[in-house]
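Table S2 (continued). Query chain:
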Amino acid sequence: MIAVLGAGAFGTSLAVAIGRERPVTLWGRNLKHRSQSAVSLPENVTVSAEIGDVGADTVLLAMPAQALRGFLQDNAPRLAGRKLVACCKGVDLRLGLGPVGVIRSVLPGTTGAILTGPSFAADIARGLPTALTLACADDAEGLRLQHDLSTAVLRLYRTTDVVGAELGGALKNVIAIAAGIVIGAGLGDSARAALMTRGFAEMVRFAESRGARGETLTGLSGFGDLVLTCTSPQSRNFRHGLALGSGQPVDESATVEGVATARAVTDLAERVGIAMPVTAMVAALTEGHVTLAEAVRTLMSRPLKQE
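Corresponding output:
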C-alpha cells in the first residue's frame, strides 16, 4: 500500500498517477481545496483527513520543504519504520539539509528517499509522459521503490546519489527565479540562456562541494528540471521572478521554494568560500537588499575569466 501525505497540486497528481494502477491513500490536513479541484480521482485512491488512517509502508511526503521538518517531528511515532519518500525541493533553513537529510535527522534509521525531476503537477495528473529521478542511498530499497512507484506513464530512474538529487532539485528553483527576473525585466532570451548556463555551473560546483557526483546534476534531477522551470510560466519560481523583474506584485499565497533555498545556500556557500554569484544575487533581490539595476550591474561587472 502507498500513501501520499499532502493533498496539494503535486501530491494529488502523484496520487492520481499511481492510483490508476494500484491502491493509494491521499491524506490532507485540509481537504476543502481538494474538493474544488478539477482533477478526478481514480477509484483506487482513498481520501482521508485523518493521518491515523494511513497504514501504508511506503509514504510519499508531498509538502513544502520548509514544512517537512515540523511535520516529521509532529508525526514521528506514526512514520517511524516506514519508507519515506520526499517529494519536495529545497534546503532547510535551520538545518542546511535537503529533504532526505531532514528525514534522517528526525527519524534516524528510517529509509529515506527523494522523488524529484522535471515535472508539473498538471502534466502528471493528465497522464502525460513524465520521467523523474528516485534517489535512495540503499540501492536495494531504491529498486523496490522504483518498481512500486513507476507507472505506464511515470518513468523513474534510480540513483544512490541522494545529495546530488536533493541539490539539483533545490538549486534549479533559485536559477528559475533568476531566469524569470531576466525575462520580466526585458533582458531577452540570450541573457536567459547565459544565466541558465552560469547558474548550472553554480549548481554543479556547490553540489560537488557537498559530496554529490557531478554527473547526477546533468540528469533529470538537475539539468532536466532546470530547463523545465527556467522556460515555463507553469513554474511558480519562474513566475515569482517574472513578477520581480517586471515590477509586478508577487503572489504571496504561492509556495516559492527557491526564495528560502537561495538564502540557505548563500549562507552555506559563504561559510566554505564557494562563489555563488547568481544564487547570492537572487537571495539579495528577494530579500530587498538590492535593486534589479544593482543586481544586473554587479553580475555584469564581475572579473573576466576562462569558462
